[in-house]
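Look over this record before class:
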Amino acid sequence: MEKSVIVFDGECNLCNGVVGWLLKFAPEDIFQFVPFQSPQGQNLLRQYGFSTNQLETVILFDEHGKHTHSDGFLKIISKIPKWRLVSALLAFIPRIVRDTIYNLASKNRVKWFGKSQACTISF
């Protein structure tokens, strides 16, 4: 796999904000961003057994497989050299605590941050 693939909700302001942050701070050759609403996103979701109707977690596909929820987010930021230490420190927080916070934000992301009319990434 040349680049790690990040599948995200292209209509979510929080998700688009995170993708914008990654575009700014991650080296260009690390990630490919795929909105789940795109044909490529839908194909990946079907291929790996995820729902194609809505996305409840960002999904990272890399050379080690698929990663979701807080583990996926930590894997993503661990691939950015300047953020590896932050990722390693956050990984000490038990997954049940991380995922509880992640799931709360995921369920309320549109309510708290709004819905976007345009995706950060064109598809």
